[in-house]
Every structure is written in structure tokens, then in C-alpha cells.
Amino acid sequence: MRVFYSIHVPRNTGVQILKECGVQPSIQWYPEENLHITIRFVGEVADGDVSFLKEIGFLVAERIPEFSVTPEKFSIKDQRLRLLMEEKSELAMLHEHIVLCLDRAGIGKPDPNPYTPHVTLGRIAGSSFIDSPTIDVSRLIFSVSEFGLYKSEPGKNQMGVYTPVEIFPLQ
């Protein structure tokens, strides 16, 4: 099973973000139900490891208070349009706790890249050049009261289907 920990963007916020980005034919937009901030991609795990991953989620959730996330700016990386988030201490703490627990358990591969919280909005077709949208995203702030462990499966048009395995309420 292929899994990851993430914060899913509330549906109404996701709809608003995509609406404000406007029509850009060179972008294959992700559906709003797929919009999320990855906390940590775990990868393929054995079914027996899932219960341990749930334990990690509940343990970490007990230590993190609810917080808000503020979109900061757009970026383009690896032919993907991303919406970068302001780096909040609670978000960094959530990421650090998950990574520490996974590393101690020897689950997943270490990520050599620095953690950059973002929402991937869509794929840029071919070698198309686009300008990042110029909307004021800082007003699209949203509250985070939970995160989840999600299963990732292939879907239509190379879009993943993300199914919650477990949701962890923050304190």
C-alpha cells in the first residue's frame, strides 16, 4: 500500500483557489478533493505497518494544537504549479514529529530535500510556459484541526485517488 501523511485543503478553500487561478489551458488542474499539503510521503508499506503508522499519527496529533495555514505565493517546480504556504511553527513541528517517528521506526526513505509546505494545483502540459497566477492568496487562509494518513492509488488521467486510512484530530 502506498501512503502519505497530509493536511487536506477544505473543499470550499480548494474550490476558491482553483476558481481564482482562472482558465489556463496549458494546466491540467487537480480536482479540489486532491488538494493537500503533504506532511511526509511514506511510500510503499506492508499492510502490517499500517497500524503502526496510525499509532504514530495519534501520538503526534496529541502534541500539536490546531493552527491556521496561510498561502504565500505560487511557484513552478517539475512542471507542477504549486501554492507555497507560509512556514508556521505548528506545521514545521507536525512535519518534524512525523519524520522523527518514521526515522526511528525505519519506515520510509529519508527525503534529501528541505521541507517546503505547498499544495500542488496542477500539471503544466509539455513544455508550455505559463506565468504564475497573480492573485492575492494570503486571504485564502484556512484552519487545520486534523491531518490524515492517506492511501494513494492510480486514477484516471494520471491523477491519484487519495483515500483516508485514518484521520488524526489535533489538540
Would you mind describing this structure in some detail?
The protein is of the alpha+beta class and 171 residues long. The protein is built from three helices and ten strands; from the N terminus they run E-H-E-E-H-E-E-E-H-E-E-E-E. The protein has helices spanning 11-21, 47-61, 89-105, and strands at 2-8, 27-29, 36-44, 67-69, 71-77, 80-85, 118-124, 142-144, 146-154, 160-169.
Record keyword descriptors for this entry.
alpha+beta, four-stranded antiparallel β-sheet, 25% helix, globular, 3 helices, 171 residues
Q: Looking at the structure, what is the overall shape?
A: globular
Structural class: alpha+beta
Low-confidence stretches: none
Order of helices and strands: EHEEHEEEHEEEE
Gyration radius over CA:
16 Å
Distance between termini? 28 Å
> On the 0-100 scale, what is the average pLDDT?
90
Tell me the strand order in the biggest sheet: 3-1-9-10
Largest sheet: 4 strands, antiparallel
Number of strands: 10
Helix count equals 3
Give the fraction of residues assigned to helices. 25-40%
Q: What percent of residues are in strands?
A: 35-45%
